TrEMBL record:
The gene is purF. NCBIfam families: purF (TIGR01134). This is Amidophosphoribosyltransferase. GO terms for molecular function: 4 iron, 4 sulfur cluster binding; amidophosphoribosyltransferase activity; magnesium ion binding. Binds 1 Mg(2+) ion per subunit. Binds 1 [4Fe-4S] cluster per subunit. It comes from Metallosphaera cuprina (strain Ar-4). Residues 5-209 form the Glutamine amidotransferase type-2 domain. Catalyzes the formation of phosphoribosylamine from phosphoribosylpyrophosphate (PRPP) and glutamine.
Amino acid sequence: MKEHCGVFGAVGPEATRLTFEGLKLLQHRGQESAGISWRKGGFITTLKGLGLVGEALDPSKIEESNLSIGHVRYSTTGSVTLEEAQPLDNGNISVSFNGTITNHFLFGRYSTDTEFILKFLAERISSGVSLVDSVKSFIDVADGAFSLLILSSQGEIIAVRDPRGFRPLVIGEIAETKVVSSEDSAIKQLGGKVISYVRPGEIVTLRENEIIREGISNLTPTTCSFEYIYFSRSDSEIDGVSVYASRIRLGEVLAKYHPANGEIVIPVPDSSRPIALGFSRASGIPLEEALVRTISSKRSFIMPSNERRKEVLKEKFGVVEWAVKGKKVVLIDDSIVRGNTMRRLITSLRDNGVREVHVRIGSPMIKYPCYMGIDFPRRSDLIANVGDVDKIAKEIDADSLEYLTVKEMEEAIGRTTLCKACFAGSYPLKGRYVLSNLESVFAR
Ligand SMILES: O=P(O)(O)OC[C@H]1O[C@H](OP(=O)(O)OP(=O)(O)O)[C@H](O)[C@@H]1O
Ligand SMILES: NC(=O)CC[C@H](N)C(=O)O
Ligand code: SF4
Ligand SMILES: [Mg+2]
């Protein structure tokens, strides 16, 4: 799957430096491109590049400013080009966003949903509507997921979270500077503190001397379960719920309802580590770090094509033969999407003399596409499509395979206000869409 993106913004002293540092701490959310916009003398400048933050942005080209937003991208629309990288600016406003505008195609032909947002707002503003009111009419018409930052040449940043709160967004402060970030771990690691998680539907205006918060949605939030399962960093809290604690509990609940007859528990690094730890503690089966992740490897799931995903996986894992040879192992991952990771790992484990592989997954089976910020837009891409659990087990060559149920996942995360569309098929969207139409609109 391709997924999310990360957004970071700052108002106050050292805004651009903090944005640059913040983006590095959100790198797990997007690895295709990175960009920063800042305001100097009433003008907006944007610097963008392809690749990781360190490759894409030369810090010596970033000017000092007290108003800045940034982005790390994992595309869900369009392609991986510099033009489509974010932030996207028109000289007047600059837009940086995490999510997918599910209905953007109903408003015209845009290369990305970000372009739609920018043009929608620009059109309202040019007809005399204020930025905040333009944002309000955007919220009225847009469907889907958006944690969105808008930097204005007038000297403010507006931060908005969609009315269902699909993606995380948090405001905080680092010394004198007000910041907004996809995840609170970035704020805390930079020495700052959280002011508040942005509430679903809320519009926050950040200026040097004030924060104005308005508008809250009365819809039940449906925050993406995958933020807890895979996407966010373990040291983040989403809306006050610890991602690490959720992952530990996913493992404990997995051990409780889906025990496995193995001699060691092996995590698939990185994101399943706390899940495997929870499973190991609850089951009493010792944990072995028998898969070693190549230090330079990227997240495979957020690569833009299946070829690139497989390339990443080829170099990603080594197996500690000493730890696994002759053993029955319980292999824990947070999710199976296309099955690339599992296929590859089980083959490697067997090549290293493993006797039995029992796979336990810390999420329910992914059967439906996502159009709310994560990039698995076609049913045919999902391994769940090959049939029932036994067929999938056969496909990945596992001796046994079990997933959590949706209820068990909710029990573990400790939150029922979650989106579960990719597991259950019912989409918490405003509009009703025919799945096969969305599949062709979002096919890339
Ligand atoms: O079934 P698949 O299509 O292979 O996708 C699922 C895998 O992708 C993710 O890992 P990823 O490599 O993206 O990142 P991680 O190192 O953070 O776990 C996820 O944690 C699974 O391991
Ligand atoms: N993952 C995301 O949040 C992607 C943002 C936006 N839909 C894009 O394609 O650039
Ligand atoms: S469909 Fe799945 S991946 Fe997409 S927002 Fe909902 S829970 Fe998250
Ligand atoms: Mg993984």
